[in-house]
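If you are new to this repository, start here. Below is one unmodified record pulled from the training split, so you can see the exact layout before writing a loader.
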Amino acid sequence: MNMKALNEVSALELRDRLASGAMSVEALARLYLEQIAAREPEVQAWAWLDAEHVLAEARQLDQRRLSGAPIGPLHGLPVALKDIIDTARIPTANGTVLDEGRVPEHDAFLVARLKSAGALIMGKTVSAELAFLGPGKTRNPVNPEHTPGGSSSGSAAAVAAAMVPLAVGTQTGGSVIRPASFCGVVGFKPTFGCIPRSGVLRQSPSLDTIGVFARTTEDAAMLAEVLYGHDDADSATALAPFPRLLETASAEVPVKPTFAFVKTPYWDRAEPEMQQALEELVEFLGEQCFEVPLAGLFAEAAGARERINLAEMSRNFHHYEQRGFDQLSRELQGALKRGNQIPARDYLSALDVPQVLNAGLEEVFERCDVILTVAAPGAAPAGLSSTGNAIFNGLWTLCGNPCITLPVFDNGDGLPMGVQLVGRRHQDGRLLRTARWLAAQIAEANERIAI
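And here is the target side for that same chain:
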């Protein structure tokens, strides 16, 4: 395999080669390190990377397989971690100068899971400041003059630039789905509470959700499946059967899925290219897709999500205010001030909104397999001063639904745009299976056009 092939091979294929011994972990790690050396000066996706550390870990994984010891389901697969996820003895700076040089003593829950599964931790990817809106140094791999999105900017960009096959990020508003759409990769945000957040920067516990980036739906399912679980230290998690996400995502659909096209109350904020792309996709799906208007109450979702986010952030980031308020970005300073001024009654009222909205969504899901909607207003905006608008993501984060974006469109200038599929809560496997089916249908149609 050469560097060019890294853009074409799936993580599933790599998994099988590594497990069989057809390729060593060290050889694969060297290929990715070469790709990083070639792309990083332009993309700047990494907050921490040590090639010698990576190779030493790769050799240990190779030795484990050669010794006959059991290997994990992610044996040798390189995975990048957003730099708000604690890694023992490896810096975790949370995207802020206030945590520069911080080295955790323990791994986050999900990092321990990855290591137990045999994954090769490649390094830490750039996060927006404290996983909020202040952009990091990362640029869009497709066009470096455009934003990669945020706050999981480095994770999305690293996968898009073929620096790693898999990466982990987080979403509190739109921090997985939006950068995946901007960079042209698959981004998957599971149902709220499925992946424990112990050891991950706490911004807004009512919203914070772990998500993953990959090149295919099956790859995303494989990575996410390893991370699902219960953790006593995270009250959002619950004891539940171990999910078979990869098996479900890879299975044939029993019947052709039905899609509910939802414009959301913010449709007018979508750019013409995105509106046209979605409408053409709806036409392509024909009788399998029908439009569903949302009740007027859904227009309140953005405000409710923001109140929850800012109020909880003002509490959890209070120690940053005390340590160095003047070293935070003006945008974060303003957000913390607004959060400090939110009355308790408004915050508590906002916490009630998801229950009401989910009752309405349940009626929609009675008639469809998944919701089809916008992943971002359009392609990645030019400039690096903003991470883009998350208006089409916050509703689903607030309600806790699983979401996935597929990189199936472009804006005519070569910049990717994603379609977002939203599933019923705790039906993550069904969402992934439907997403794989849709991606295959679009790919087949494109092949027919090309011929």
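Two things worth knowing about this chain: The chain has 15 helices and eleven strands. The first strand starts at residue 46 and ends at 48.
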